[in-house]
Amino acid sequence: MWPVRRGALFGALLTLAAAAFLVSLQPVGAAWWSSADPDGPYVGNSVNILLGNHTSYLDHPGLPTQDALAIAFGTQYLVERTAGRVDDREAFADELLLDLDRVRPVYRTWALLLFFGSALLVYTLVARLLGHWTWGVAGGVLFVSAPSLAAISFLLRPDNALAALCLLVGYLAATGFERRSAPRYTAAAFVLGFAMTVKLTAVGMIVPLVLVAVWRPPGPGGLRETASALARFVRRNALWLAPTAIAWLVLCWVFNRERTPILQTDDQRSLLVNAATFIGAYALFALLVERRRIPWADRVFRLSYAGMMVAFAAGLALPASLVLDDGIQMLVAIKETLGGGRVNAGVDPFAGFELGAFFRSPLSVAGGIIALGLAAGVVGAARRCWWPLVLGVGTLVLGTMAAARYSFDYYYAPAVALAIPGALWLFRRAGRPGVPAYLWLPVLFVFAWAATHQPSKGAWDYERTIDAAAQELADELVAPGEVVLVGPYNSPIEDVRFDGLVDGFADYVPRYPYRFLTRPQLAAEYGLTPAYYVALDHELPAGRTTVDVGGQGPFVIEKLPRRWGPHGEYGVARIVASPPLEP
Question: Is the pLDDT at 112 greater than 70, yes or no?
Answer without folding.
Answer: yes
